[in-house]
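[retry 2/3] IPT/TIG domain-containing protein: previous attempt timed out, resubmitting with same input.
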Amino acid sequence: MLVKFIHDLTTNEKLQRAFAENPKKALRQAGLSAKHQALFKNRDPQQVSQAVMDELRTSPFIGFWFMPAINLTGISPTSGRQGQTLKVTLTGQYFTEPMTANLENNTQKVPITLQSVTGAGQEKSRATGTVTLAANLPTGPYTVRVTSDTKATSTLSMGFTVNASSGNTLAATPAKKSPARKSSGTKTAPARKTRAKTPRK
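[retry 2/3] IPT/TIG domain-containing protein: success.
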């Protein structure tokens, strides 16, 4: 309604004369809400512009063009181990449905399979999904990236860390055994056999 009134006010001479003669009456006849009427009373161009933008965003036809950019603010959990498949939750603003997400560094790009998005196009958005960390995936920090349905992106720099799997610890070095001592070359004399004495008759 506000957008239409401003459009008519700039193009309709009859409305322009009516507004100049009695602004309050022209605003009421246009069907503007009390909140929108107060904007003209305050004569604050910034408030009027913001109200126009807010109304355009709610339009199913043109709101798409005025939608704020997607913004990623968090991921949970923030780390995982090689070989794990994790359930992850992404939080932020103005997520879209559909949208994509992944973990990345200079050499790797790991997709996050999103299963649901709630609060799409709103100031509080959340997406849930799963990510599989390969057993040989390089460890270290990864940037989290989300991409909207219009190819706009937002990143969380080094927002996720891949740790080594618990099985990748170094095996303990076996204790060294002292070499068995070699016997000396001295031969032990065999024990003498004693003959049993024959009893005398």
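[retry 2/3] IPT/TIG domain-containing protein: The radius of gyration is 40 Å.
[retry 2/3] clearing retry counter.
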